[in-house]
């Protein structure tokens, strides 16, 4: 069945009356990823669930004694206005290095939600709200994504799950596109009903856009636009789906990952302008999965490297960790699912990993990963790798403030910071923070003043009783006066609060 949505004029769209444009062709069951699926079964690893220790803080590849800790700067506040509750984050970086962060704020009442776009033009040191793309109305929780196209005056894309039947245009998934200089803008309705969730988009170097979303009946869709979001071909991919992510590489090779029936991860490749499947692989898991994410390298299709990660539940301990698979031939074949090495350290009782997210920026070579470790202090961990399977020695905590457990942090490559950059929400707060590799070029300072703690050679000095924790939640020291510590990252708690201390 083919459904076509033609161009119409609309009043009352979010952001004011504008022209609703575009043609969207939706094909029911056309792609059918269920056909000719290859199956790869998970490895039962002896090194799963923390039998491999966290890399020591003074370990590095050079062997010259430099601490294994990136020079992440003091976290920069993106936004702190009290106008709702943050319920989603997205980030993308333009080719010129400008950083865009989308924050979905859920308001207290009907039509009180706000999608804010924040922009930094100076490496993330200062932020200003980009009100040209501000959307106010009824937006489903986690119902948005943000992407920046290629070029010197690129399109900024926002996709939202609009849930306001009182408007003349009705509910559904809408794409708003605007040139970053504000000169041109459009609304395109991609889905014309409120039965969908979690829209996600990705943009290639050629300006092709890939989209995925899941319906409330578990049907997952995938689509491609070849004219910068104005028209779309979208097809139903599968059923019994709960989580879906998509990535389109530099040259239009697409990767679509979604979780089916809780215990399988399906990875589909396609070649834009077509959204139809090229290769379909089902990763069979012994445990429950959620929070899937996928990304890939550039280059020739036959040699592209790709990574898919997901949260993996161990039923006997009820602990979630991170597992992954990878491909080195453009998604034609995938390695057996196994534990994701950077996060495979001992988990204290009650702690777990949530919201793993992996990404490669089209202007960078490395893969980057971020995840939230839920514990007494919710830690945002960052890792990177030059290859799809080279993650073993890469892990570091980056958040100065307690992270949220309601949704995940996001990661990208920011040229101005010399490497990775992360945005995250502070726990039980409207604050959204930014941090980047070598953001300030100096040693990170505590995020709050704790008068009784001084970093000294070989440890810390304190005039009051403190407890010192490693980043995986283990208490390693307590007391007052001089406390000797190895080089590394610690959380120090006192009556004045908790700070992160880096000993170099």
Task: Describe the protein.
The structure is a single chain. The chain is mainly β. 0% of the residues lie in helices and 51% in strands. The strands form eight sheets. It has a six-stranded mixed β-sheet with strand order 1-4-19-18-17-16, with no helix packed on it. Strands 2-3-15-14-13-12 form a six-stranded mixed β-sheet, with no helix packed on it. β18 and β19 (231-238) form a beta hairpin.
Biggest sheet: strand arrangement: 1-4-19-18-17-16
- Beta fraction: over 45%
Number of helices: 0
Structural class: mainly beta
* Largest pleated sheet: 6 strands, mixed
The helical percent reads under 10%
How many beta-strand elements? 39
Low-confidence region ranges: 1-17, 51-70, 441-451
CA-atom Rg in angstroms? 23 Å
Note the overall shape.
globular
Question: What number is the mean pLDDT?
Answer: 83
Amino- and carboxy-terminal Cα gap: 63 Å
Architecture blueprint of SSEs:
Layout (H helix, E strand, L loop, with lengths): L1 E4 L2 E2 L9 E3 L1 E5 L10 E4 L34 E4 L5 E9 L5 E8 L6 E8 L7 E2 L5 E3 L1 E10 L6 E8 L9 E8 L5 E7 L4 E8 L5 E7 L4 E6 L5 E8 L2 E8 L4 E8 L3 E8 L5 E8 L4 E8 L9 E9 L4 E9 L10 E2 L12 E8 L7 E8 L4 E7 L10 E2 L12 E5 L4 E7 L6 E5 L16 E4 L2 E12 L4 E10 L3 E7 L2 E7 L1
Parallel strand pairs: 3-15, 4-19, 5-23
Antiparallel strand pairs: 1-4, 2-3, 6-34, 7-8, 8-9, 9-10, 9-11, 12-13, 13-14, 14-15, 16-17, 17-18, 18-19, 20-21, 21-22, 22-23, 24-25, 25-26, 26-27, 28-29, 29-30, 30-31, 32-33, 33-34, 35-36, 36-37, 36-38, 38-39
């Amino acid at each position: 069945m083919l459904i076509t949505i033609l161009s119409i004029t609309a009043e009352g769209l979010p952001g004011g009356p504008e022209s609703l444009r575009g043609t969207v062709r939706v094909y029911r069951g056309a792609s059918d990823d269920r056909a000719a699926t290859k199956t790869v079964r998970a490895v039962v690893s002896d090194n799963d669930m923390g039998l491999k220790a966290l890399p020591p803080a003074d370990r590095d590849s050079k062997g010259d004694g430099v601490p294994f800790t990136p020079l992440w700067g003091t976290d920069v506040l993106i936004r702190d206005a009290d106008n709702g509750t943050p319920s989603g984050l997205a980030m993308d970086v333009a080719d010129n290095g400008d950083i865009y962060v989308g924050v979905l704020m859920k308001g207290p009442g009907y039509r009180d939600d706000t999608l804010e776009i924040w922009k930094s033009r100076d490496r993330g040191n200062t932020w200003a709200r980009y009100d040209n793309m501000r959307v106010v109305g009824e937006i489903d929780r986690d119902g948005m994504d943000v992407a920046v196209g290629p070029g010197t005056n690129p399109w900024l894309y926002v996709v939202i799950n609009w849930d306001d039947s009182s408007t003349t245009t009705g509910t559904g998934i809408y794409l708003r596109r605007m040139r970053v200089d504000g000169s041109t803008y459009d609304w395109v309705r991609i889905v014309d009903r409120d039965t969908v969730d979690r829209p996600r988009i990705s943009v290639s170097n050629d300006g092709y856009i890939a989209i995925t979303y899941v319906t409330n009946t578990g049907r997952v869709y995938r689509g491609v636009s070849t004219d910068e979001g104005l028209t779309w071909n979208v097809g139903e991919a599968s059923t019994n789906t709960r989580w879906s992510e998509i990535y389109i590489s530099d040259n239009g090779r697409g990767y679509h990952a979604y979780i089916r029936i809780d215990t399988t991860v399906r990875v589909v490749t396609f070649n834009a302008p077509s959204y139809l499947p090229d290769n379909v692989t089902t990763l069979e898991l012994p445990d429950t999965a959620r929070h899937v994410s996928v990304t890939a390298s550039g280059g020739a299709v036959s040699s592209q490297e790709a990574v898919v990660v997901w949260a993996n539940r161990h039923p006997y301990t009820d602990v979630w960790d991170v597992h992954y698979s990878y491909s080195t031939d453009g998604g034609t074949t995938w390695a057996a699912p196994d534990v994701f090495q950077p996060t495979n350290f001992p988990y204290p009782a009650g702690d777990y990993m949530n919201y793993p997210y992996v990404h490669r920026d089209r202007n960078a070579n490395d893969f980057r990963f971020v995840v939230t470790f839920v514990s007494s202090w919710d830690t945002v961990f960052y890792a990177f790798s030059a290859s799809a399977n080279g993650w073993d020695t890469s892990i570091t905590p980056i958040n100065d403030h307690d992270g949220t457990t309601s949704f995940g942090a996001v990661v990208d490559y920011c040229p101005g910071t010399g490497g990775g950059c992360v945005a995250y929400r502070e726990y039980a707060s409207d604050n959204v923070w930014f941090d980047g590799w070598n953001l300030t070029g100096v040693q990170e300072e505590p995020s709050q003043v704790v008068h009784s703690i001084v970093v000294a050679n070989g440890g810390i000095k304190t005039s009051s009783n403190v407890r010192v924790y490693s980043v995986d939640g283990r208490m390693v020291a307590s007391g007052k006066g001089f406390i000797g510590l190895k080089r590394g990252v610690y959380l120090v708690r006192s009556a004045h609060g908790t700070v992160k201390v880096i000993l170099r």
